[in-house]
Amino acid sequence: MYRYIVNRLLLMVPTLVGAAVLVFGLMRLIPGDVCVVRLGSGGGTFDEAAVRACHAELGLDRPLWHQFFDFVWGFLHFDFGTSMWTGKPVSYEIMQRLPISLEIAILATVVALALAIPLGTISALKQNSWIDLVVRTVAIAGIATPSFWLGILSILLVLDLSQAIFGAPWMPPINYVPLWKDPVQNLAMAFLPAVTVGYRYSAVVMRMTRSAMLEVLREDYIRTARAKGLMRRVVINRHALKNALLPVVTLIGIEFAFLIGGLVVTEQVFNLNGVGRLFVQAVQNQDYTLTQALVMLVVAVFVLTNLVVDLAYAWLDPRIRFA
Amino acid sequence: MRASAAMAIAAVLAVLATAAAAASSEDQPKRGGILTYMIPADAPPSFDGHRESTYATVHSAAPFYSVLIRVNPNNPSDMNDLVCDLCTAMPTPTDGGKTWTFKIRSGVKFADGSPLTAADVAASWNEIIFPPKGVLSPRRSNYMMVERVEAPDPSTVVFHLKFPTSAFLPAIADPFAWIYEKRILDKDPHWYEQNIMGSGPFKFVSYQAGQEIKGVRNPDYYHKGLPYLDGFVGIYAPQQAVQVDAIRADRAAIQFRGFPPSARDELVRELDGKITVQQSVWNVASAVTPNEKRKPFDDPRVRRALTLAIDRWGGAPGLSKIAVVKTVGGLVYPGSPLAATKPELEQIAGYWPDIEKSRAEARRLLKEAGAEGLSFELLNRNVDQPYKYVAIWLIDQWSKIGLHVTQKVMPTGPWFQAMRSGNFDVVLEAPGHGMVNPLLDVQKVLPASVDPENYGNYEDPKEVELYDRMLRETDFTKQRALMRQFEKYVLDTQAHEIWVLWWYRIVPYRSYVKGWKISPTHFINQDLSTIWLDR
Question: Does the beta-carbon distance from A47 to B452 stay under 8 Å?
């Protein structure tokens, strides 16, 4: 197993190199650069000398191959450079935002799992009943509804309801405080985004859980377990659910990885200072170093999440062995 | 009878006393409280005002710094009302207007306790005007009239000019011209990019990248009695919906840059009685620049036709309901003494009072130039307010003279690059400045050999000569006459630029915020020293 893990980690390297080449090239295909955006952002006059000085400062006047070499060399030494926009280390910029993205991702996953697995299971057990119909409707609504739209609506609902009930509008806090400093404010801020993102996430997982359970419940070993006289709860939890979770675990892994850098619009709606918002800012500002590092981060998260999912398979299904 | 008369008198006196108390509570600032405001940006690129051009830097860090002179914070709508901040009195120039001597007030300290002297002021200005190698100074061309800056003693700063000009003093009141410590600049001129240490009304407390910035009252502030606030929190939020909801829910009191009319109307509707709105003409304009390297825009007849087609007088009222544009004006900020009056504007092509006559002339010019039914692309920036609104309106206006115009929208970086590389037919821009300084502001319409940020791709020695005469003219009446000639030449005779509409700044905020007055730019009056909370 350890050799399997090491092999998988080594296989990450070519994936990351490929992503590095792609993002380096694509960013430089976009017309303009960070100097022009930065110096022109005030709408006033700036001179070419300032642009040239900025290019020299950021190394943008060097040949492309030189810039790429520096990027790869730095990456190999875990030195991701400094943000071309703020001048701060890229690692600093990311670490300022990663906790909030991670927190929302974890909370949304908790919400999703708390909803999806029980409801998906019940829906499968009560197939074609009104319970099944309600759960499927809720799931389809969750998939069809953009989470950012739901987010905007939820904020407006909270504002209007609080105004109607208490006479003054209320909204969750808009500035982030770490959980250990003020858990109440932290969770008050994180609650709505976690629920709105978690709802969509749960809808996808709910449907997968339902269809996986339906398939497993038709298996011979389930019939055998029932014939043996095992309690229904034992049949479902120990025999059916565990086997049905294999595809569900894969889906949870993919969705979680997506949440780390993919909640761009949701973060904008709730003013969350997360990785997704940083991504948008970096691309808009044409901050090459930061964008490159963020792409590598997302790729690494996806690859590592897939590894964790694969390892989870072995725990769920003892028949699975790693070569 | 006597008792009822006495009661009536007592009632009247009570009403008068209440009114007097209300008036005096409005006039009497209250000390204390934390102001929370929204900054409509992700984060400032750096804290260095000398280097940056964005309001995100000013709204974040201006409260921590002092400047030499500034627009009167009690009268910021009058850009000619300049007062001292660090200096003791506004100087009278000597040497035929070429030498300006400022006396610096004593007893001023930086946040680290170091004394602020004239050497610090001179060093800061030398960094802005004569930046050392490797130091960016995007506005240094505003100071092309300055020959040198020196501090002959600890309380005196002297600016020596190459020629006298009325553009100098407003240029010195630039809101980005913060005073730094010479000792730090000498050691590391990049220090202020990542660090804050000034002598302003507030002291730096903390900054969380992309989240918030905090400051507390500077107890050693040299304007006694100020600031009124105990501190402030600036929260970064680029999305307008978040800003509006935050003010509605009283998570924040104000957003200083401005909102579109729809946001103002929403806040007034939801918080009637608890919202105050201040509005002002904004020192930013929507302007169209034809690329004169591309046919047929090298023909002044075609350019004149483009401006003649636009019904500014008729379109402005409607547009002002949905976009942050409103005022019809020429090249000069409409509130400035140098600005054209309405009768003067009506002499310029594109500002004629009769739009049908104007459009008939436009069609005639197009026919004469062989450009009837011309199709071209309008390059625009991917920003809603007011770029996209104005562009759609312009396309409609041009359709009325038979032109077929499509819009190409690009994000900021590629938009800039397309302009700089001349890869466009006609572009919609928004020239704006931190200070109203018409003599410098109109440099934008000078050929690229003088102002590299003119993307029209033309040369015009006559225009440059007109401008130089105007810049050096010290008699106001003559200078104004020259400005009229310059404006007529640029907007009409040659139509190098098509000035569309001036923007309109709308700032709705919680009524308990007092002491802040709107100005024509969102860079001015941002040190928060005069703000107090009436609650």
Answer: yes
DSSP H/E element including A125: helix A90-125
Option in B54, B141, B418 nearest A47 (CB) = B141
B54 phi and psi angles, rounded to 5 deg = -95, 150
Q: Residue B241: list chain A partners with CB under 8 A.
A: 152, 155, 269
Rounded distance, CA B320 to CA B330, Å? 17
Question: B interface mutation test: which of A175, A189, A286 has the most B CBs within 10 A?
Answer: A175
Whether the pLDDT of residue A225 is over 80: the answer is yes
Token pair for residue B431? 């020239």
> Are the beta carbons of A31 and B413 separated by less than 8 Å?
yes
Compare all CA atoms of chain A with the CA of B429 and give the residue at the minimum distance: A43
| Residue range A183-196: mean pLDDT, rounded | 93
User: Are residues B351 and B309 in contact, defined by beta-carbon separation less than 8 angstroms?
Assistant: no
| Least CB–CB distance from B45: residue in A85, A269, A278 | A85
- Residue in chain A nearest B411 by alpha carbon: A284
Closest CA of chain B from A295, distance in Å: 19
CA B99 from chain center: how many Å? 27
Instruction: State CA B95 to chain mean position distance.
Output: 31
Q: Side chain identity at A13, as an amino acid letter?
A: V
Q: Cα separation of B104 and B106, whole Å? A: 6
What is the chain A residue with the closest CA to B452? A47
Q: Please provide the DSSP assignment of B218-253 as one string.
A: -TT-SSTT---SSEEEEEE---HHHHHHHHHTTS-S
Residues of chain B with pLDDT under 50: 1-6, 8-25
Q: In the numeric block, which tokens belong to residue A178?
A: 């770490």
In B443-534 the beta strands, taken as DSSP E runs, fall at 498-510, 513-514, 532-533
**pTM metric for this prediction:** 0.89
Q: To the nearest whole angstrom, how far is the Cα of A138 from the nearest Cα of chain B?
A: 28
Surface-to-core class of residue A136, CB atoms within 10 Å of its CB (0-12 exposed, 13-18 middle, 19+ buried): middle
